[in-house]
Amino acid sequence: MDFGLNSEGVLYFHGRIYIPNDTELSNLYAMHLGGNKMYRDLCKLYWWPGLKNKVTGFVGKCLTCQQVKAEHQLPSGLLQPVKIPLWKWERVTMDFVSGLPLTLAKKDLVWVIVD
Q1: What is the mean pLDDT of residues 38-42?
Q2: How many CB atoms sit inside 10 A of residue 59's CB?
């Protein structure tokens, strides 16, 4: 038999939790890394008819996924000069620079703070 219930009443199909067709994928994953990755992750624990097609369709219609795709990003432009603030500490920026040679304490980054 392909389907079965566990002791808590959860329906399984081939050892994975069965999800009915009307369940939304967005309830399972608020963030995903694309269709293939999402499908591989989901099919480890879940199964429902047409899983692959549902995942592909869901990711294809996901507004966030469409906006962050590499082909929809504008290329970087030239650096622009930053206006000099009138007062000290008016604007503070910080960033990490990593990939530096290791120190004796096994550190390879610095925290840069500019006011």
Answers
A1: 85
A2: 21
Phi-psi region at 88: left, alpha or beta (left = phi > 0; alpha = psi -120 to 50):
beta
Q: What is the pLDDT of residues 62-112, one digit of tens each?
A: 877 777 776 666 777 788 887 888 888 888 889 999 989 999 999 999 999
Say how far residue 63 (Cα) sits from the centre of its chain: 13
Q: What is the 3-state secondary structure (H, E, C) of 17-64?
A: EECCCCCCHHHHCCCCCCHHHHHHHHHHHEECCCHHHHHHHHHHHCHH
Q: Which residues are within 8 A (CB) of 4 and not within 5 positions of it... i.e. 6 or more apart?
A: 11, 12
Answer yes or no: pTM beyond 0.90: no
Are the C-beta atoms of residues 11 and 17 closer than 8 Å to each other? Answer: yes
